[in-house]
Specification:
Length: 262
Amino acid sequence: MNVLITGASRGIGLATAKRLAAKGMSVGLFDIDDNELERAINDKAFKKAREDNKIIKGHLDVTNESDWDDAIALMQKSFGSIDALINNAGVIVSGSLPKTDLQKQLALIDINCKGVLIGCYKLAPHLAKSDNGKIINLSSASAIYGQSEIAPYSASKFFVRGLTEGLNIEFADLGIKVVDVMPLWVKSDLTKDISVTSIDRLGINLTVDDVAKTLFSLVSKPNDKIHATHYPVGMPAKVLQKLSQISPDPLMRWINTRVGAK
């Protein structure tokens, strides 16, 4: 398998790259932070992959179409083809909406929504040539019910969820499996500096490796063995997803108010 990962210089993206490389897959690490990317690819975990020419890195601003074209070209030049895309790049801004920086919120929408959309658009023709082509999007448990204090982030993950559901149907004709993973809070650089009531009440119980395990499992499975569209990670996310399927909106609102509202 030849796998392209966005946001791969740290966190979930890097942990996933390490796991895939350890299993002998060819991995492309792409990120906007070139310095962190250089540090990441020189990690001792990639020693064998570097020796076997099974790992590459490249600059990628996921909101920039030409960067995507360059990333695809580099993957093809290095590995010959692309079998999977992990749309991992994302940002979060916390706080009451009127008290946050509007430009940061707009950038969040660009990265979390536009970046995922461009990736799906650009990679589809290439993944269709694979016998096991797939797209795995990083959604979130915050896409189960809108969350206060991170409302734009939550909304961006609803976009990812909706896009995943639509393309799961649409891309089936191309032989491409499209799914997403939905973790709750994960201990990573993304969450280390944010202040959110739901974290205070629930804590952060997932690690980047927990999510990487799920991503590895999905990449490794033949497409005909992947039957669900959404894959919650961690028991709280699994419970919330199940409840959302059977509970009326007022009940879900009450649960989320108890968990996340001040």
